[in-house]
Amino acid sequence: MADQIILRNVTKRFTTKTLGDIVAVDNFNLNVREGECFSFLGPSGCGKSTTLRMIAGFEDLTEGEIELCGRLVSSKKKNLYVPPEERGLGMVFQAFAVWPHMNVYENVAFPLRIQKINKTDIDKRVREALKHTSLTGLENVFPGDLSGGQQQRIALARAIVTNPKVMLLDEPLSNLDPKLRETMRFEIKALQRKFNFTIIFVTHDQSEAMAISDRMMVCDMGKIMQIDTPENLYNKPCNRFVHNFLGESTFISVIVKDGKVYAKGDMTQPLDLAIPQDAAQEMVVATRPNEIALTGVSDGGYKTHIEKRIFLTDRTEYLVPVGEQVVKIQTPHRVHFAEGEACCVRFLEPMWYPADDGKADQERARRQLV
Ligand code: ATP
């Protein structure tokens, strides 16, 4: 598959009065392939929307260049900038709601009227777009009389009516209730299959991104952390941030001493873990709550006890002290321990990361203040 969206060394700096310079997007390089659904994922302030706005042409670049469908659309070096309306993109932005003073038909027809397309063609294309977004019959209704899901469909119909090769979706489902969000996800994917456009999808919601994406970019504080398939990002996160961001994580601070690993706060019994070659004295061991074996004391492992047992619909959760920390363990219901009961834990294939100095959290907080 050909690359349809290419970012080369794209950087965006903002100068703010109160907090000085912010590198909102720091040297992004990425390629999105034709027909791919590619998500930008990361905490608030990580640079998702700024990147999307630069692709759309609403924001100038500080450095670098962007190519769309084989055509250079932004280049700082060449002083080139193609305006948004000439980039051939479909867009559904959270902030770009539908126009309340136009009925459904006119909302969808609007982009075609701007392009001065003749009336018969407009009618044909609007009716087609309404059909694919299940809005037929609502042509004369005003958006204010429709549900959130229907309004979002108007925005989708308005985006697909121009037959774009690339669709930019910025938190398009964030105003909808969870059930409707799930339905709309399927509808977006079905529209993509039908019209074969490439999607860039921006969201805070990791499960939504995982469900919809072929590949995802996880970023933090203006930097790309990792680009990969949802499965690889979850199973092979490149650092602690990505591990923590996707799915549930359990982190245990450990001390490496004399070839053994101890949970912080308990130097009396080591954890049964193989130490990586480059391990420093203080490290963090990461795992998922369902990748910790919880067994009886005779089975071996780190000896501890059940502090709390929480019965949930599809699993049981246990809180178990390990050194000065308390870890969460998820098991199937058949694994049964009572609160206070002695037990052993073993960490199955955990990952190792450097100890955290808290600086990243401070910077994240600063960015959200801007
Ligand atoms: P959110 O999920 O909250 O929308 P985001 O990941 O999309 O966050 P951006 O909106 O791209 O993040 O912002 C990245 C950084 O750039 C943030 O620190 C933000 O405060 C800053 N920023 C964005 N736009 C501007 C602007 N116009 N002027 C100054 N700073 C800005």
Estimated structural class: alpha+beta
Low-confidence stretches: none
* Overall morphology: elongated
State the total count of DSSP E strands: 21
Listed once per kind, the bound small molecules are: adenosine-5'-triphosphate
CATH superfamily of the largest domain: P-loop containing nucleotide triphosphate hydrolases
Strand order of the largest sheet: 7-8-9-3-10-11
Q: At the first level of CATH, what is the class of the largest domain?
A: Alpha Beta
End-to-end C-alpha gap: 39 Å
The gist of it:
By secondary structure, the protein is of the alpha+beta class. The chain has helices at 48-56, 104-114, 119-132, 148-160, 178-195, 206-212, 230-235, 240-245, 359-369, and strands at 3-16, 20-33, 37-41, 63-68, 71-75, 80-81, 89-93, 166-170, 198-203, 215-220, 223-228, 250-257, 260-263, 282-287, 292-295, 302-305, 308-311, 316-322, 325-331, 342-347, 351-354.
